């Protein structure tokens, strides 16, 4: 499964362009940046970006004065991080077994690895490792894909066919994405699962944010029409307003858990 994920991101998907591609991604990017600003200690704090992809957030934080290191499973991503502007230290690694010393970073980000770990034990291990390398009292921010993101996305963009609807029904109980339908090997969370996994890893005070808010599907549906920007602006306003509303968290495409290492 690991090799399939690496192949997917190396040969089939341009992760570097993802956050500019669609209204959903723009909402995710904007809200993630706002929440990083709200929860991270001030620069020049040290930040470990585990599963940092091609380095978008790492570059923003480095420019702001943070000392950032990126770890990613995909060698091609690591090369892009190193070659970016500004260049950021990066290396290949596994979120479940970090090579860094205990309490060696002021904050740790886990904005991708939980997407691709099918087994709960592996997800808890990744969260526990993130906690271990973070100084006591430091934040650990972990992102997950909502259990309902895929069918909501397909429905908003007129792609919800019979096969996808069957997969959506399976996801309700299983949470594991079928790569034959789209994307790669992935796990989609319910909010209560993410909270429980953070607690099992010893992370306290989890606050769950629905990143894109409940109106992101409307922004996707309106993207090619005359109301694209007004709907997008409304979606962003509601994403901010309802960020921590428990009844709406799962309606977002992504869920961000803001936690503290005790």
Could you walk me through the main structural features you see in this protein, from its secondary elements to its overall organization?
Helix content is 43%, strand content 16%. The chain has helices at residues 2-12, 18-21, 23-39, 56-63, 75-83, 120-132, 149-156, 162-174, 191-200, 216-221, 228-241, and strands at residues 46-50, 67-72, 90-92, 107-110, 139-146, 188-189, 204-210, 254-260. Strands 1, 2, 3, 4, 5, 6, 7 and 8 form an 8-stranded mixed beta sheet that branches. With 262 residues, it is α/β, with parallel strands linked by helices. The relative contact order is 0.16. It starts with a helix and ends with a strand. The radius of gyration is 17 Å and the shape is globular. The protein contains 11 helices and 8 strands. Strand 1 (46-50), helix 4 and strand 2 (67-72) form a beta-alpha-beta unit. It has a single domain, classed as Vaccinia Virus protein VP39 (Rossmann fold).
């Amino acid at each position: 499964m690991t090799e399939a994920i690496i192949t997917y991101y190396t040969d089939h998907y341009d992760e570097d362009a993802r956050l500019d591609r669609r209204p959903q991604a723009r909402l995710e990017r904007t809200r993630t940046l706002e929440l990083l600003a709200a929860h991270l200690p001030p620069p020049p704090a040290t930040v470990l970006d585990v599963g940092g992809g091609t380095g978008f957030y790492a570059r923003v934080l480095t420019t702001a004065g943070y000392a950032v290191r990126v770890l990613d499973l995909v060698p091609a991503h690591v090369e892009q991080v190193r070659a970016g502007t500004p260049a950021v230290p990066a290396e290949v690694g596994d979120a479940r077994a970090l090579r860094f010393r205990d309490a060696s970073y002021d904050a740790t980000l886990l904005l991708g690895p939980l997407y691709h770990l099918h087994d709960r034990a592996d997800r808890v291990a990744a969260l526990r490792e993130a906690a271990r390398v973070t100084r006591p009292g430091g934040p650990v921010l972990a992102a997950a894909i909502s259990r309902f993101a895929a069918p909501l996305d397909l429905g908003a963009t007129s792609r919800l066919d019979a096969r996808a609807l069957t997969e959506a029904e399976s996801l309700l109980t299983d949470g594991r994405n079928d790569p034959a339908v789209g994307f790669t090997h992935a796990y989609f969370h319910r909010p209560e699962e993410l909270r429980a996994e953070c607690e099992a890893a010893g992370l306290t005070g989890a606050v769950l944010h629905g990143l894109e808010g409940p109106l992101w599907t409307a922004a996707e549906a309106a993207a090619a029409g005359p109301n694209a920007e007004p709907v997008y602006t409304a979606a962003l306003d509601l994403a901010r307003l309802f960020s921590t509303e428990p009844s709406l968290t799962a309606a977002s495409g992504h869920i961000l858990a803001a936690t503290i290492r005790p």
